[in-house]
Amino acid sequence: MLNIKSDPKKAVQTDTNGTNGTEYAIQARDLSIFYGNFRAVREVSMNVQKQKITAIIGPSGCGKSTVLRAFNRMNELVPSARATGEVLYHGKNIYDSDVDAVEVRRRIGMVFQKPNPFPKSIYENVAWGARINGFRGNMDELVEQSLRGAALWDEVKDKLQQSGLSLSGGQQQRLCIARTISVKPDIILMDEPCSALDPLATLKVEELMRELAKDYTIIIVTHNMQQAARVSDYTAFFNLDDSGNRTGILDEFGDTKKIFTNPEKKSTEDYITGRFG
Questions:
Q1: How far apart are alpha carbons 71 and 198 in whole angstroms?
Q2: What pLDDT is recorded for position 1?
Q3: Residue numbers of the domain that contains 227
Q4: Given a cut of 70, is residue 22 above it in pLDDT?
Q5: Fewer CB within 10 Å, N or C, the chain?
């Protein structure tokens, strides 16, 4: 089990300088990810603020999705993958031997790049995760609450028994978000959730993210600079190191407005302005 006794909404963690009282949803400390002998990401340290949206940007191949998946141990589904360093959630390293990876993934949910509804009804798509996690309450209320939370209820309330695959791409992605929030996570990870959507559907998902951030911490990987600037409170810019080994590093991290208007590093400015990447 995850072995966390505190209320997730009230957890107070310690920042990397040892100062108490700052609330973080999750912290990476010297996190490196390997696939076999290849180090995909090197010594990432970052603190993710609670109930804020953090965007992860950077050129292709710099480890953005790898880092995102490290935050709920999804990389472990790749047999050759391993992690060093720490990912702290409620002060507990999620990679400790006594931590249940399934429980981690319940508390830290994931929405993928391509909408992936189950070949089941809209209702069952939402209810499935709650059911396998032992939910014993009123399922009808939970399904409605989750669909409302994903801004989808009004569009599907009269066709809950239709297949989730019958929905449009944007609706399918919001259905996947409803499925994620039905198990009451603390954190929602989003891996390029709008890359397969048209501009109108993208706008709806972005509006939904801002609404969800009132209750959840969101970390999003995106290649869309405008999207990162629009929706996020904080931005992490990842880059490739200069060793020639194509290892990803965290180049700069901070307030989104500052990152996009007055970055500290030239590499960040070059990427944001389209000079490389």
A1: 28
A2: 52
A3: 22-116+187-272
A4: no
A5: N
